[in-house]
From TrEMBL, chain A:
Top-rank taxon: Eukaryota
Keyword Coiled coil on entry: yes
The family this protein is said to belong to: Belongs to the MDM20/NAA25 family.
SUPFAM superfamilies linked to this entry: TPR-like
Annotated Pfam families: NatB_MDM20 (PF09797), TPR_16 (PF13432)
A GO CC term attached to the entry: NatB complex
Signal peptide (UniProt feature, chain positions): none
UniProt-listed InterPro entries: NAA25_NatB_aux_su, TPR-like_helical_dom_sf, TPR_rpt
Protein name, UniProt field: Phagocyte signaling-impaired protein
Automatic annotation (TrEMBL), chain B:
Single Gene Ontology MF annotation: protein N-terminal-serine acetyltransferase activity
Signal peptide: none
CDD domains found in the cross-reference section: NAT_SF
InterPro entries associated with the record: Acyl_CoA_acyltransferase, Ard1-like, GNAT_dom
Compositional bias (Basic residues): 154-170
Cellular component, GO annotation: NatA complex
Domain spans labelled N-acetyltransferase: 2-152
Descriptive protein name: N-acetyltransferase domain-containing protein
Matching PROSITE patterns: GNAT (PS51186)
Amino acid sequence: MASKFGLAGGIPERRVRPIWDAIDSRQFKNALKLLTSLLSKYPKSPYALALKALIHERMGKPDEALTVCLDAKELLYKDDSSLMDDLTLSTLQIVFQRLDHLDLATGCYAHACGRFPNNLELMMGLFNCYVREYSFVKQQLTAIKMYKLAGEERFLLWAVCSIQLQVLCDKSGEKLLLLAEGLLKKHIASHSMHEPEALMVYISLLEQQSKYKDALEVLSGNLGSLLVIEVDKLRIQGRLLARARDYSAAVDVYKKILELSPDDWECFLQYLSCLFEDDSMWKFFDDIDQIHPTKNIECKFSHLTEEMFDSRISSASELVQKLQRDTENSNLRGPHLAEIEIEKRKFLYGKKNDSELLKSLLQYFLKFGHLACYASDVEAFLQVLPPHKKAEFVGMLVENADSVSASATTVLGQTTTILKVQELTGNIFELPLGEIEASAVKLAKLYCQNLPLSKDLDPQESMFGEELLSLINNMLVQLYWRTRDFCYLAEAIMVLELGLAIRGHVWQYKILLLHIYSYIGALPLAFERYKALDVKNILTETVSHHILRQMLESPMWVDLYNLLQDYLKFMDDHLKESADLTFLAYRHRNYSKVIEFVLFKQRLQQSNQYEAARVEASLLQLKQNADSIEEEERVLENLKSGVQLVELSNEMGSRTLRFNEDMQTRPWWTPCPEKNYLLGSFEDFSYCPKENVNKDREENVKRSIQRKSLLPRMVYLSIQCSATALKESLETKGSGGDLKTCEELKSLLEEYTKTLGSSFSDAVEMITEISQGARTFETLGSDLVDWLNFAVFWNAWSLSSQEHWHVLNMLFERLILDRIKSMGSSEMSSCYSDVQVLVQIITEPLAWHSLIIQACTRSSLPSGKKKKKAQHSDHLPSSPMSQAIKDSIHSLCSTVQEVSNWLLNKINNPEDDQVERFLTTLKRNEGPGQVLGVLESFIATSEESEVGSRIFESLKTWSKADSARKTVTAQQRVLREFLQICESKRKLLEKLKQQMTHV
Amino acid sequence: MVCIRRATVDDLLAMQACNLMCLPENYQMKYYLYHILSWPQLLYVAEDYNGRIVGYVLAKMEEESNECHGHITSLAVLRTHRKLGLATKLMTAAQAAMEQVYGAEYVSLHVRRSNRAAFNLYTETLGYQINDVEAKYYADGEDAYDMRKNLKGKQIHHHASHGHHHHHHGGGCCSGDAKVVETTQAEDAKATSSK
């Protein structure tokens, strides 16, 4: 071993230190200078070369870095006397990793370990390499070698972790677990065990094999003392007993935990499960795929006789009563909620105890109803009640709310809670319009009355009555849904904007505004509110669903690009770097975290949103460059002609997709990105409570990714087909395109139609009939754009058929013109969903079709623009196909022109007039506008001494007209961006028209 | 307290969602991971009755100095769940683990001068005292109180001390050490950029 004290890679430390310092302080030029002089003294030192490579890499010269690295590697391999220390290797490793060549780094370490087989340091480096590659088998083998060499417990545990990972991730046989168990047993027999985490691994290993009794024995033996926190130990014991179906012993353990910590809700549920000998809870824990897993677990009772049930319920009641007595003065919610849980179980068993259940909920209200968490506490209990009981409960709350003796904050809290319960139960959707309106007005008054309470609060503290504005907003949106009177939405915007002016940090306001702005087409403003949420890091995965879909369907490409890039960069970086952190857990001997963390990485890697965003990022590039076939071809080349995305599409069926989005923060009217109730009509009771929407999404999301990832390849193939089609049609009667390309396109089209739930021939029939008016385009539903895409590529596959061209032209005309007609002179606010569809048609199918025409005409033109045109155009006779192309260009041109005209008409509408119209909708004497009226008159009369200077300032500076203008400006911006796209398409088509006059 | 339990890596998703709803923090994801992978015993979450994470505490052991001590990096409770004693319970759990698992002698933390609510919690409820004032600790120029609380410490479980001993000596793997340096930088970045 060459590394000696004071020597770094064979070079004196004092010579190397300044170089590292320069690198650390990012003075790369200086570092390079120092290194050059070092290299002149040690020209053959792999370490010096590794440093050079590192500097190159940091300077952004990856090619140079790789060359130098490979030189260093060669020296290491060639020269037997060469210095092969961990410092050199780890420096090389860093560079190789940054250059995406993990394999080369691993190779170096493997070579070094072969040369010095008993060097623990090098082996650790090699183990680390395998961790980075997620090569669990090789990790295991290396760790075992280290264990044999050094006999240390941690190396054995590294091996055991690697085995567990093989079983969990690679689905290797569970026999491996037996091997791991054997290794541990042997070690314990000779050396015992010294770390709590090691014990946890041992227990989990036994648990994985369902050897619960063995695990219990270990826990209660000497090793159990490794766990120093008593409650932790008891929790494990309880779980093991339950899984071993030793329910009575488990019940005792859980009782003990509850006595130690009477508010431990999870423990209480586990206690009940054991009491009722119900194992569904444990199954539930194996299947967690939500960011906030609901603990509303199904209860199984069928195996219990009524007598058994009764006796167990009564012992649970006894325990709960005792807990309540013990914690009388501590204001804990748990023991009281437990009482409701018991009533719920009785109710589910069929005890017809609904009045007791309601009574217990009411008791809980009287104790905790003023707290902001009341509604979410009781949500799961309300769900089991039938609708009329829910309504009865709301009535009970109203009756029992304390409006006399209680303090202002209690009254405010209780009122807010009652409204939240009304929302939760759906009760609010059954009220007559007038009642909802009156209620909203009442809440607005309450909000104003209570503002003085928040006078002295720190700006970051939650304000009293903060939630009232969200509740008012929810009512106003509902009123809009039921009446279609835009004024309610305008009012909702004003209410929330005012709320934000007063308290800038309230995320609920921002999210609600984001969705209202999105709905009325003020997307730039929606995006601004989204950005104000300060979404970054992992939140891009859990929160960006609020805005992503609207942006994808918008003409705001620059913002969309940034949104996608930020998200993908976070995910890519994390996936790339997470292995480094895994090793941290190994080093700190936190073995259970190693496993969790690797599974967590997998969870992110399988994110549905990540997959979809990667496809969308490619599609965005294609959309942005579609007006120039040369640019488009460059994009396609970078996308490897779409081949990889087709592979993704093929794999999608068998992939596991994970849903990490936090849907609970979405407003009621759009519970997931694909749903927006406001787009449909209001029907009585059509409101559904927030369910686990992700389950229904999986199939749709998969199919959508499958479909979209075929597009780049289809664009590519269509261009190929078109390139030769026109020429051939002019020369012979060719079918267009070479056979292989055509066949591939056909098979992709078949795949594509499958994802639309149709066969190829049915799909053709469908679009043909729609083009002829024999069917309405409503039959296409929400997949309209996808169907048009199909039509475009189907035509590209059969360019020689004039009829197909005609079908396609008619489809574009019909779908676009119908929409323009139906939008007529409507305000943007009420027809934005139509605009969204138009944006998609113009930027996808119509763009692809224009590309195909570009490819056709290019082939008919003289090769290369440098040659003069005149040469041949006249000797090419006109063919039926060139006529079809001309017709198509003509048709597209006038269709796009219609869209432009509509947009221009909107844009030319003076902004001031629009603002004025917006504001006048709010000035009515009855119906909508009353809530705002309340708030405005409060603003007019409020005094600084009453509400404090900060709130006073915000009230006075807030302006209704400003908010209206911002909204209008944002809508206008969307229209202008769209117009720009249309104009660019139109110019392109005009140019093509010109070119075709020569054919 | 709902259920105060150790955080799992999966909890990170919901923990960060708390940030949306409390004050946003400027920690990189790596920094959270660094904590949970290094001192998983010190991370606690408060899980509410419906399974939602409504608060968390992020803490670590300081190993550079001679005295072994813990440091509270971050404490968050949803606005809807304040004034229920959750912060106290989270802090108590983390402090107990520092003491029992790592034998910490004291625990330290930083708090904004202007954050009265937090300051009161630390001094009155939890018994912290001002040790020092760090001028312009936060990015916006605000000072921080450097606060401390003594723990009983010293009754370290022998197994745990074994683990701790190991931390001092690092893993002996060069790149692994480099990582630690990097994450420490991340922490400094936080100190200067957090609100």
